[in-house]
From TrEMBL:
Chain intervals with Pro residues compositional bias: 310-321
Primary localisation category: membrane
Membrane topology: Multi-pass membrane protein
Pfam families, per the entry: RDD
Domain RDD positions: 38-177
Top-rank lineage group of the source organism: Bacteria
Keywords: Membrane, Transmembrane, Transmembrane helix
Keyword Membrane: yes
Residue numbers spanned by region Disordered: 304-336
The keyword Zinc belongs to this UniProt entry's keyword annotation: no
TM ranges: 44-69, 81-100
UniProt name for this protein: RDD family protein
InterPro entries: RDD
Amino acid sequence: MTAQPPRSAFARPGSSTGLGADAGLVSGEAVELEVRAARLGSRVLALLIDIAAQFVIAVLLLIVAGILIDAFAGTGLPDEALLTALQTVGVVLLLVGYPVSWETLSQGRTPGKLAVGLRVVRDDGGRVGFRQSLTRSLVGVAVEWPGLVLPLLTWAVSVTVMMTDPRGRRLGDLAAGTMVIHDRSPAGSGYVPAMVPPLTGWTRSLDLTRLDDGLALAVRQLLSRSGTLTESARLRLARSLWAEVAAVTSPPPPPGMADWAYLAAVHAERHTRARQRLARTRSVSTTLWPELVPAAAEATAPGLTWPVRPAAPPPSPPQAPVAPVLAATPQGGADR
């Protein structure tokens, strides 16, 4: 049972695909948010826009400095040491102060990121703070851009890290505990497959400890988007995921179960258990510290700026009733 669904159709957290990559963020309702992690191309474009903005600011500062120097030329005040100090301060403000101030005051956006639709967030999805922004900026100036330490070597290392990291993070992100996401990406549909009533008793005995988040996300994506797939592609993907899910869950499904019914029942049970765990955790927190839960909800709300919008009803499954499906053995069922 080693079948794998095509990564181009349903990418999982940790994959290196571009458009389908998921940032792996989870909402308070235990629904994974389909927020795309920014990759090398979009981040380079945002950097080029920021470099252009920094160049314009540098030109304006030079013009102002030239006017001031001319004004004090006869007084002897602007000596060589003072000019060198002012130049150093200006470079630091442009390379470090520019991104830090923008990201801190604009919720993780610089003008370049705002134009491309990117945002810097913490690894847990919260709003980036001054400490994280300063750390990633200092590391970036030192070893990424402009790269004060062995520029060519550190550039190559930085690009390699971004291309191989599951979330597209650079060295500064790894040091600061941040990541860059597509702020304008469509939010996750929030669709959760409904439980198939005849399978309720069986799903309660399921061992789901080995069913990871990536596989569960692939199942939900298939069930929510099945209406956009051809019949052959839908059957092929369903059988692939059926094999993967069956390999990591027990007990085995009842004989003759349709692929879609099995996947929907397993995902619905996993979601139910996640909600129950979350409810128990909140209950304990409320008991020990009643003021903690409202305060935490208000504190995390600004960081989660990608709301989970209710999705349109998923496409209806095959029209055959569930009971006859469970009784009949599908083609190839003996091989399972």
